[in-house]
Amino acid sequence: MSTVVIDSGGANLASLRYALQRLGADVTVSLDPTVIRQAERVLLPGVGAAGAAMQRLRSAGLVPVLRELEKPLLGICLGMQLLFEHSAEDDTDTLGLMTGRVERLPASPELPAPHMGWNTLNALRADPLLAGLQPTDRCYFVHGYFASGHLPDVVATSEYGQSIAAVVRRAHIAGVQFHPERSGAVGAAILRNFLNS
């Protein structure tokens, strides 16, 4: 199966590629629109700031490609946030593939921002990405911005002072706020579910 990880410039590209290869995927890291259009599965990872990430996608001519893509697409961390309409980070218009905005995560003495650590997922409805997962399973989060857990495309939430979107889906487009490539066996199961979707 041809799987393309979009070269979004993040530091997690190598670990994500390795995690997918361990699952048997034929993985290419690319910014080439033709390569991305021809892939059977596409992943949009992201580490860093929304403004820089969107500029990289725009410069590569990928914004219309991603908006028109008909193959399964999975956004990871910042990549998930880019699926929404706007991010408060750098006051950036994003891809508009999901309804809603991404806001800055408020900090408190009890709940510092960014949110870094392991959290459970609260499934709101069944989704292929979550097949086989248990309520006690934990995923690894690192993020300073979030989409509300009350938005219409949210299929699972996590709690961090409030309900945050942990897994989102609209048709063939999905996203996870956490890092599956850093989430052990649970993350591997989620990536396997994506490859098999």
Q: Can you put this structure into words, describing what you see?
A:
- The protein is 25% helix and 31% strand.
- The protein is globular and about 45 Å long.
- The protein has 197 residues and is α/β, with parallel strands linked by helices.
- Strand 1 (2-6), helix 1 (13-22) and strand 2 (26-30) form a beta-alpha-beta unit.
- The strands form 3 sheets. An 8-stranded mixed beta sheet has the order 2-1-3-4-14-13-12-9.
- The termini are close together.
- The chain has a single domain, classed as Rossmann fold (3-Layer(aba) Sandwich).
Question: Could you give a short description of this structure?
Answer:
The chain has 197 residues and is of the alpha/beta class. Helix content is 25%, strand content 31%. The protein has one domain (2-195): Rossmann fold (3-Layer(aba) Sandwich), CATH 3.40.50.880.
So what's the CATH class? Alpha Beta
Number of strands: 14
The helicity comes to 10-25%
CATH architecture: 3-Layer(aba) Sandwich
Write the element-wise H/E pattern from the N-terminal end onward.
EHEHEHHEHEEEEEEEEEEH
Distance between the termini: 12 Å
The name of the CATH superfamily reads Class I glutamine amidotransferase (GATase) domain
- What's the CATH topology label? Rossmann fold
* Total individual domains: 1
Uncertain residue segments:
none
**In what order do the strands lie side by side in the largest sheet?**
2-1-3-4-14-13-12-9
Number of DSSP helical runs: 6
Structural class category: alpha/beta
Please tell me the overall pLDDT.
95
Largest sheet data: 8 strands, mixed
* Percent in strands: 25-35%
Q: For the CA atoms, what is the radius of gyration?
A: 15 Å
Shape: globular
